[in-house]
Amino acid sequence: MTALALRAPWLARAVQSRDFVPLVVLTFTALLVIAPLLMILLATLTPEGRAAWEAVTNSPLSRNLWWRPLGNTVVLGIGVTLGSVLLGGFLAWLVVLTDVPMRRFLAVMSILPFMTPSFASALAWSTLFRNERIGGQAGYFASNGMSIPDWLAWGIVPVMIVLIAQFYSLAYTLIAASLSSVSGDLVESAEMAGAKRGRILFGIVLPIVTPALISGGMLAFAGAVSNFAAPALLGAPVRMQTLSTRIYGMVQTGNIERGYVLALLLMMAAAALLYFSDRFVSGRRAFVTVTGKGTRTKRFALGVWRWPLFVLATAIGFATTIIPVIVLFASSMAPRPGVLFSNWTLHYWIGPAGSAIAEGQAGIFRNPQLIDGILTTIRLGLTVALCAMVVGLLIAYTIVRYKASPYTRILSQLSFVPLFIPSIAMAAAYIAMYGTSLGPIPALYGTFTLIVLAATANLMPYAVQSGRGVLSQISSDIEESARMTGASALRRMWEIIVPLAIRGIMAGGILVFIKIVRDLSLVVLLFSASTPLLSMIAFQYASLGFMQFANAITLLILVICLLASFLAYLLQNKVQKWKK
Amino acid sequence: MEEMMTAERPAVDTSEPALAIRNLHKRFDDVPAVTDVNISVPPGAFLVLVGPSGCGKSTLLRMLAGLEPPSDGEIAFGGKVVSNGRSGVIHNAASRDAGMVFQSYALWPHKTVEGNIDWPLKVAGWKREDRARRIDEVLAFLDISALRQRYPAEISGGQQQRVAIARTIAPQPRILLLDEPLSNLDAKLRVDMRSELIRIHRATNATSVYVTHDQVEAMTMATHVAVMRAGRVEQFGAPDELLLQPQTTFVATFLGTPAGNVIPVERAGDQLCHAGVPLAPAALAGGRSSAQLLYRAQDITIGRREGCPVMPASYTESSPIAGQSMVTCMVGDLRLTAMADGFFRAASGAPVEISFLRTPDIVFDDDGNRIAR
């Protein structure tokens, strides 16, 4: 620093400028997020690309390629949004604002569904409700003589139900957090003013939590339109295509440019809808509860409804968490889907090839790909968690510490862009960028590195958010007092910031780990034989109609996720022993 | 103990000022925060930067610490330029030999008391034995040896303050920067800590720069005071000099317990009058038609005194101080502080008469600058 300051004062000043760090980090983030989007756009401007635009938007094919999938996607998005906000909002209200019994139990039950990947619930649904329409083994109900109508077994209705069952818990988390910030004083002052209960709920409480309702709805919408597993397993077999499954189909059949065009259109459609919903409510987003302490919440008495509502809430929780897991488990042990709970066998797990059941297929642990798949999946989870948290912490640090720079604002918005890029479109963009060699970078298609890069960009918003939460708790004085000692930036980061932030970093890391380990929509395009991943193996089994194998592998994924959470929980109590 | 604190220090070059600030400016987005500051103090000085909040004193301190680059001008420690407008921060805090005590103490919560003191020494590359000895020394010096293994969250605010000071003085900085270090302590502890800080300052032989908005702290601790207002140094000098010879009405009304009264006057004939009452000869205003006169509280008393100008006023409040009463009263919109013998009290708003005991020797023009005589 000293030498630099004396030899090149202008450079020293530039480095010390409050814009320097934000600019460097912004450039890096743009490379991860914006560059692939530009590349996918460029790829559709070639002659083949222009032909693809023509085919998708303005040809006899466009109805099937674009309009119908778009219609399905939008209907699905809106349905899942409404369903999630209603269900999540109801549970949040019940848990936070009423005297329902066993609130903590209900709170945990309401968060759990977020842990189950959508393909687990989709597989469970299929195991129960599948009918004979597309052949193969029928599900539990149909095998037991019940007649399951097509609309309940396949298509948009089950997809919507499965997605709501996952995303309502996301809406719940946001709305419950917001509701518990509504202090009892606010409610009581409304009571003092003579307002009745309904009036208080709709006049005071609801307006305050509106931003949470909206962000919960937007996340559910973004998740629903970009989801791949549920429509691929429950819709695509009966030609109910969404944009995600269409993109996959196009890339799969070698129509890469059409896939790119659809990915771009999907991003635009998602961005436009989110933009308008945001504009629609933007005037109401600025509520900040002005309060000194006030985390005490006022609970309404439910009277005779206490127990009935408790039973209803418990039933919702059971149906969306416990039952799918039980079904998956039973199905992976039962010889036939019609008899889920007797004659259990371990064949689907460890059985040899050539036996009478499962058309002679061997159990999953006899599949040489599986062990490889477990290791690759865990390796991917750990690598992505590490990369995403390093990137997230770097971005979060810049956002928190360089508030004054105009580039920081751009950075903070840019870091949330991936949240609204459907994963499958992000994957397509990364193929467009790194599919062929690019200057000094070799072609990365089908490599582990490409999955890690795309996943890091895809999960960046979660990492940044958890990093910000942690860092905003560390005062700038703490860091400046370390700067005063003359310690280098790296040393300050490693010895002061990281130890203080480790708990939050680990929580963020575990979230990223779980999200990538159970991901299908991102890896489905990037996956190759050299990178076998559990979710892909399960998906392949399911596509071939071997539900039991798919279910068994899905259970494995769930176990890995649970173990990871548990391990993180144990570790968290080991570190930061100074925190009383 | 005092010997031990200074034993390892190399001799201080007294020919150069320990701290010299020249034409220093700081702008944030073209909004000036510090404007044209010039201050220079000898080694061992206790410089207090005092002023209301937002006056730029903390920004100035952060520039001294090397946490902010100046926009213009330069800062030199012991003759060595450490920051300037061209290169920004040339020497960081450690290489400019400065330590800082933060207002919030900024103790690292994941390190014990000992760990907090140890880390800066480790960063500075001290040997293990030297570090251990130095830690023992400063812990004993600040009387916190018993807290060694505790974490910051486990000790009281006053103890945290001591740890913060110990951590800062352990590497033996030549310049000690203190950012409102007493503002988070309760009133009693604050008074005790004032004398403790002076003891520490003397023992470490450092040059201290102390930021506060509390003029009492400035007056009791400083060898040099810079009164700041709106980014500028309003007046710089020894505390008694500032008290006796304020150069602006701002300084006159900011310093002193109680602060001085500034009374605007108009010339009428050969007298300067306020509210029609002649107070002083017109010659004091040097030919101006209006001016402002400085009266200290002890220059005004309650009740009529023979041969003194007398003015009607209305009583507001009074508080006993050292056997006398400090009385606040209003003359029109003007609030004045006067002294009365014994315990004086009246009904709120009651009419009283106030007498001006002396002809003022300090006169300001309408802009608040002192008129030279």
Question: Care to describe what's here?
Answer:
The complex is a heterodimer of chains A (580) and B (373). Chain A is mostly helical. Chain A has two domains: 250 residues, MetI-like fold (Orthogonal Bundle); 284 residues, MetI-like fold (Orthogonal Bundle), CATH 1.10.3720.10. Chain A has 26 helices and no strands. About 2% of the residues of chain A have low confidence. Chain B is an alpha+beta fold and 373 residues long. Chain B has two domains: 173 residues, P-loop containing nucleotide triphosphate hydrolases (Rossmann fold, 3-Layer(aba) Sandwich); 107 residues, OB fold (Dihydrolipoamide Acetyltransferase, E2P) (Beta Barrel), CATH 2.40.50. Helices cover 24% and strands 34% of the residues of chain B. A six-stranded mixed beta sheet of chain B has the order 7-8-9-3-10-11, with helices on both faces. Chain B is elongated. The termini of chain B are far apart. The chains are: A mainly alpha (580), B alpha+beta (373). At the A-B interface, helix 1, helix 2, helix 22 and helix 23 of A face strand 6, strand 7 and helix 3 of B.
Q: How would you concisely characterize the structure shown here?
A:
The complex is a heterodimer of chains A (about 575) and B (about 375). Chain A has about 575 residues and is an all-alpha fold. Chain A is built from 26 helices and no strands.
Shape assignment of chain A: globular
The radius of gyration of chain B is: 24 Å
End-to-end CA span of chain A: 39 Å
How would the global form of chain B be characterised? Answer: elongated
- The string of secondary-structure elements of chain B, in order, is HEEEHEEEEHHHEHEHEEHHEEEEEEEEEE
Overall pLDDT metric of chain B: 90
Tags for this model:
heterodimer, A: 580 residues, mainly alpha, MetI-like fold, 2 domains, 26 helices, 0% strand, globular, B: 373 residues, alpha+beta, Rossmann fold, OB fold (Dihydrolipoamide Acetyltransferase, E2P), six-stranded mixed sheet, five-stranded antiparallel sheet, 9 helices, 24% helix
